[in-house]
Amino acid sequence: MTAAAAPKGSVSAGDLAAAQAHDGVLFDVTDLEVYFPVQQGFFKSMVAKEKKYVKAVDHISFQVRQGEILALVGESGCGKTTTGRALLRLEEPTGGHILYKGLPVERFSTKTLRAYRRKAQIIFQDPYNSINPKQTIFDIVAEPLEVNGLVSSEREKEERVIKAISEAGLRPATDYLYRYPHELSGGQRQRVCIAGATVLDPDVIVADEPVASLDVSIRNDILKLMVEQKEKLGVTYIFITHDLSLAWVISDRIAVMYLGRIVEIGDTEEVVANPRHPYTRALISVIPVPDPLARREHVILTGETPNPVDIPSGCRFHPRCPEAVDACQETDPPAVHIGGDHYASCLRIS
Fold first, then answer.
1. I want to staple 344 with a disulfide (CB 3.0 to 4.6 A). Which of 108, 259, 277, 321 is the partner?
2. By percentage, how much of the chain surpasses pLDDT 70?
3. Longest C-alpha distance within the chain, in Å?
4. Angle between helices 154-167 and 186-198 (to 10 degrees)
5. pTM of the model
């Protein structure tokens, strides 16, 4: 779970083009932190002894393997979206290292960052606001190709746009080219967003709650599409969700986040079958089961998530943990190796 040493100096676009995933690892993240300064009034800022920060992401380490779907799971405010945005440098990390194919993302030059954005795309949560309502579907999907100068003719552009739209599940693609977003359903709009991301043939896509705003009836189609693209196109997905049941269905590995930290990570089936952190067990306990006769003890957490500006001492989950002991208030638990790729941070793990 440790990153290789980062080379000195800026990284050129040529270095990025020549880079290969080492041992199948696409991202290697070490001690990543993203802090946001708290804006205070003039008087408070004058008398305050030290600046306060929202610790959205607080010293997390993990890897993303090529061709997998890694799910970042947790309740609102846990830092999962900020983590995904930091990987793409849509948010600037305040500490730690992010290696992409062994290259430090924080040292990418402006030109390199532009080339990197072609290989690392994002799908936003709301398809109603993430695409331009004044553009046709053709223009929306073609824009990334034009901005990056990736097509040499109108014919090539049209062929790539039609291919991307078709692979996103809008068939026949020619029926959608000159429609506008308001003429499509929510699920169709999200497919347009997916087409706009995949038209660049990216290595990785950060999918930020991509089905949260969609009807339950069409969520399955979008999730199925993502799995198909992973298998057919070799796209790596970082799937961000608050719904552990969705992560269970779609992901190869799960990272459970709480208050800026990864508290448990491992292969999906292992984490779901053998959860070791109390927070993970609480999330799993409320997943619906198809058997109406099945009985499962629900773990109901009490209290609210602590303020990320004033994080509790010791284990940050201890104020809500039903299994907390006195030591939890004083000791910040390290990640304990459970077996294989399974790690969890809890003092109660023996």
1. 277
2. 93
3. 68
4. 130
5. 0.90
